[in-house]
Amino acid sequence: MNETGASEEAAREHIRHLVRETWKKMNGEVFEDYPLSGFGPFLGACLNLARASHCFYEYGDGHGLPGHHTKDHLVSTIFESVPLD
Fold first, then answer.
1. What gap in Å lies between CA 34 and CA 32, rounded to an integer?
2. Parts of the chain with a pLDDT under 50
3. How many CB atoms lie under 10 A from the CB of residue 56?
4. What is the pTM of this model?
5. Where are the alpha helices (DSSP H) in 2-84?
6. Distance between CA 81 and CA 85 in Å, rounded?
7. How far apart are CA 66 and CA 62, in angstroms?
8. DSSP at 7
9. What is the pLDDT of residue 33?
10. Taking a C-beta distance cutoff of 8 angstroms, is the pair 43, 32 a contact?
11. What's phi and psi for 61, nearest 5 deg?
12. CA dihedral 12, 17, 21, 24 (to 10 degrees)
């Protein structure tokens, strides 16, 4: 951003674009080779870890923010049960 003179919004949009492109590559690689690979469970776990990290940190790391969004996501994912009715 400082090196190119881009605005903060342009830099954020560029990062969002990079994240979208990386997800496309990851999903393509995993789903092409998943059934044939002996690493299926490992690849699935890696992809799920990336998904969880993206969900938790999509709007920042949660430190110093008054909203506690990251903590709420974590608590709802791990400790709250899903209603089955």
1. 6
2. none
3. 17
4. 0.55
5. 8-33, 40-57, 69-78
6. 12
7. 8
8. -
9. 61
10. no
11. -90, -10
12. 100
Which pLDDT score is estimated for 24? Answer: 87
Q: What is the pLDDT of residue 17?
A: 92
**CB contact at 8 A, 57 and 70:** yes
Cα distance between the two ends of the chain: 49
CB under 8 A, 24+ apart: contacts of 13-20: 19/54
Q: Taking a C-beta distance cutoff of 8 angstroms, is the pair 35, 44 a contact?
A: no
Task: Quote the DSSP letter at residue 37.
Answer: -
* CA 69 – CA 22 distance, rounded (Å): 24
Q: With left for phi above 0 and alpha for psi between -120 and 50, is residue 62 left, alpha or beta?
A: left
User: What's the full length of the chain, in residues?
Assistant: 85
Q: For residue 15, which amino acid is it? A: I
Nearest to 50 by CA among 31, 27, 73, 33: 27
Q: Residue 38 is which amino acid?
A: G
